């Protein structure tokens, strides 16, 4: 019995040591609150441990949803990759999330671009940077914000788009179809769902929220603030902005993306961005979030693997792409 107890304790110590070791990241993480006028923005940044030449800087622009400053620490493996290449990574709690004031559901992509510019201005004043290596990273919905930043802000020298869509409405339809197909729904059920979405979109176009409520089209009814958020952004299509790009854009897309039609994104980006400025990184065995396909939907396995080694849930080629981008001598 005593030997068994000792063995169990030894195993627990080994497991805890593995978890602690694999959750230590080779970077220095700091938190700050940036006060701009009446706004407070809770910021987190990761710096390289080794002091070398002046570092570069990448702002991380979230996708949809009430995301916190480090994406529930999901950004850490990417930040570590960039820190090793002498980059500082910065992100922040969305408005109304964590320590940030406001309400992200009241923002359109111009608002999000302007919010990022406030953080960029603060960062440029705070850090002694290699100004040739200041960029933005945007995931999914954040892709609409980073094209604006790249085109309109002279301090932004490059952009990394991870699974960005082009057109809001087409992206929503694609997501519905691919997600339901993945879950095994019949074509009939998918068509029924698409018909409902078309009717909901008609109410949205007319901004008839009461009519939408009275229609009883959906069991999970859109809250009014989410309704207003969709109204603000549903006409998004950045095709014309792609044509204006005259700085490096790195498009990172996975081959198991259920949220965004990456084939459409790649085609439109190639058709509209001058090939001199566009580099495409197709990531094999990667979902919308750059995770391995077995983590397409969060599960207990995802939680367990994340605890034991958060780097291993990601498609390896994603970090290889980030490393290659960051290691370029001339961005």
UniProtKB/TrEMBL annotation:
Q: Name one GO molecular function term.
A: carboxylic ester hydrolase activity
Q: Where is the Xaa-Pro dipeptidyl-peptidase-like domain?
A: 42-280
| InterPro entries for the chain | AB_hydrolase_Est10 (IPR053145), AB_hydrolase_fold (IPR029058), Xaa-Pro-like_dom (IPR000383)
Name the Gene3D superfamilies on file.
Answer: alpha/beta hydrolase
Q: What is the protein name for this chain?
A: S9 family peptidase
> What lineage is on file?
Bacteria, Bacillati, Bacillota, Bacilli, Lactobacillales
């Amino acid at each position: 019995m005593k030997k068994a107890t000792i063995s169990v304790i030894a195993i627990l110590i080994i497991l805890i040591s593995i978890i602690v070791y694999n959750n230590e990241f080779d970077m220095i993480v700091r938190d700050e609150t940036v006060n701009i006028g009446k706004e407070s923005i809770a910021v987190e940044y990761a710096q390289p441990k080794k002091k070398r030449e002046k570092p570069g800087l990448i702002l991380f622009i979230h996708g949809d949803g009430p995301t916190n400053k480090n994406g529930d620490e999901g950004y850490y493996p990417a930040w570590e990759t960039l820190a090793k290449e002498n980059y500082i990574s910065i992100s922040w709690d969305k408005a109304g999330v964590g320590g940030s004031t406001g309400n992200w559901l009241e923002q359109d992509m111009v608002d999000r671009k302007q919010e990022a510019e406030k953080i960029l201005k603060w960062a440029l004043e705070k850090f002694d940077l290699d100004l040739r290596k200041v960029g933005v990273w945007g995931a999914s919905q954040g892709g609409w914000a980073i094209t604006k930043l790249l085109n309109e802000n002279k301090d932004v020298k490059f952009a990394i788009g991870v699974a960005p869509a082009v057109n809001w409405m087409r992206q929503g339809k694609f997501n519905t179809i691919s997600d339901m197909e993945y879950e095994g729904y019949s074509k009939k059920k998918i068509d029924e769902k698409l018909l409902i979405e078309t009717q909901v979109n008609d109410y949205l176009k007319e901004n008839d929220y009461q009519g939408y409520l009275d229609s009883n089209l959906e069991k999970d009814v859109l809250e009014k603030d989410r309704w207003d958020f969709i109204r603000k952004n549903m006409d998004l299509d950045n095709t014309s902005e792609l044509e204006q790009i005259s700085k490096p854009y790195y498009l990172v897309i996975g081959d198991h993306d259920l949220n965004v039609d990456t084939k459409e994104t790649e085609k439109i980006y190639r058709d509209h961005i001058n090939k001199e400025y566009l580099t495409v990184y197709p990531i094999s065995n990667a979902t919308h979030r750059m995770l391995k396909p077995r983590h397409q939907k969060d599960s207990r396995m995802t939680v367990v693997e994340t605890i034991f080694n958060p780097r291993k849930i990601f498609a390896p080629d994603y970090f290889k792409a980030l490393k290659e981008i960051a290691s370029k001598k001339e961005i």
